[in-house]
Design goal:
Length: 81
């Protein structure tokens, strides 16, 4: 399983909507059938963010981070599948 590719797949399926990190993690576990730790998820999200494949919103009021795919990420995802 390629976690970063699965993240891009899930965010692409959201059609531009922001996905809360806990929901993303839960959905990835269901789809892959593999336990994904918060550390693994955040490492993958960090790498994707550095490449500008995703963008995130860290809420100021203490809620979960929310993520969405960027145009650059969508192009990278489409080239990978």
């Amino acid at each position: 399983m390629n976690l970063k590719l699965e993240i891009l797949r899930e965010l692409d399926a959201a059609k531009g909507l922001l996905i809360p990190e806990p929901r993303l993690q839960r959905d990835l576990v269901i789809i892959t059938g593999t336990a994904i730790s918060t550390i693994e998820l955040r490492d993958a999200l960090s790498e994707l963010k550095e490449k500008k494949y995703i963008s995130g919103v860290d809420p100021d009021l203490g809620g979960p981070a929310k993520w969405m795919i960027t145009d650059q990420g969508r192009a990278a995802f489409q080239n990978a599948v």
